[in-house]
Design brief:
alpha/beta, 5-stranded parallel sheet, 7 strands, 58% helix
């Protein structure tokens, strides 16, 4: 069976851990592993496969990771992968591994069929009722305990995938003594006042209490610039994070419409749907005054369109497309920007 894998879905942390497990298995069996990571919007599949064909003088095994696998659709490109699989299978060679990764749920069916069922997996975002237990367990494994209010604060402030949560929570482990119980005051100290900008701080800025949308746009563009200058400047988690916020806004509107005969959701309903803290409730009350449910739904389409344009066009126009996206969200409230206006 060829060493080809397919890992898809928006849960970046667990998905990347699965890819790391393949590399670790190669290291355990062969010792040194030469690892290459390619983005298929920038590098052809032929170039990536050539690394597997050529091997390496200094390593016993080779692993090639291809990200943006959803872009691999052309018949001739899939044929290159198929030819490699056949050659690999015929030779019985198991020192080379090819891993395809996508933030999307699925990839082109022609590529999907080349991957054995046992070697592919979809990684979904955690359900709301799984997030606090996962976070509490993660702190416990690192020698700390965590109050429920502190856990909820972290989840309100950080992109709810395990990769982002691990990155942000590492601050506590570096600065606090083991055995400490982390409280909301600690979260306020380590995350609120000492954190880089991300999709959630951008959403917070977009809902700020300014008199005009142009002022909110101006301030939001400053946050966007901070994100683009940070070490994690990729548009992929940024757009995914904003999409998560606006999906929650649609849910907020629906809960308000359907609960208590249209008089608004009670505290128990809000908590059970992931709006546990007063901080996050206040934020979504403000957001609901800015965007209606219909506008929030239209904004999800804007985000999806921007994501597709950036993935297909590469990095050359990325900043311009992100700025255009913000304008369509903040000023146009989900309406597309006309070409002449743009």
């Amino acid at each position: 069976m060829p060493q080809i894998y397919l890992y898809t879905g928006p849960e970046f942390g667990m998905r990347d851990e699965a890819a790391e497990a393949v590399v670790k298995a190669l290291k355990k069996k062969f010792g040194e592993v030469e690892e290459h990571v390619y983005y298929l919007n920038e590098t052809s599949i032929g170039q990536a496969i050539s690394q597997l064909d050529n091997g390496n003088l200094f390593a016993s095994a080779t692993c090639v990771i291809c990200k943006n696998a959803e872009l691999l659709k052309k018949k001739e490109d899939v044929a290159i992968v198929e030819d490699w699989c056949k050659a690999n299978d015929a030779s019985g060679e198991d020192s080379s591994a090819l891993i395809f990764i996508s933030d999307e749920i699925s990839v082109d069916s022609k590529l999907d069929k080349l991957v054995p069922v046992a070697n592919k997996k979809k990684f979904w975002e955690m359900f709301d009722n799984q997030k606090v237990p996962w976070l509490t367990d993660y702190f416990r494994k690192n020698g700390y305990s965590l109050t429920e209010d502190a856990a909820q604060m972290i989840l309100d402030m950080v992109d709810n995938n395990t990769l982002a949560l691990k990155n942000e929570c590492s601050r506590f482990f570096l600065c606090l003594e083991k055995g400490k119980t982390v409280t909301p005051d600690d979260v306020d100290s380590f995350l609120t006042h000492n954190r880089e900008e991300n999709a959630f701080t951008l959403f917070k800025q977009m809902t700020a209490n300014y008199d005009t949308s142009s002022r909110r746009l101006e301030e939001s563009l400053e946050v966007l610039q901070g994100i683009r200058l940070s070490k994690d400047s990729s548009s992929v988690p940024l757009i995914a994070g904003l999409a998560s916020c606006f999906r929650r806004l649609v849910l907020w509107h629906r809960l308000q419409e359907e609960s208590n005969g249209g008089y608004g959701a009670d505290e128990a309903t809000l908590k059970s749907n992931g709006f546990g803290s007063s901080l996050i409730q206040g934020q979504y009350r403000k957001a609901a005054k800015i965007w209606t449910k219909g506008q929030a739904t239209a904004i999800l389409a804007v985000l999806s369109s921007a994501d597709m344009q950036i993935r297909s066009g590469g990095t050359a126009m990325e900043d311009v497309l992100l700025q255009k996206m913000l304008y369509e969200i903040v000023v146009k409230k989900g309406a597309s920007l006309a070409t002449a206006e743009y």
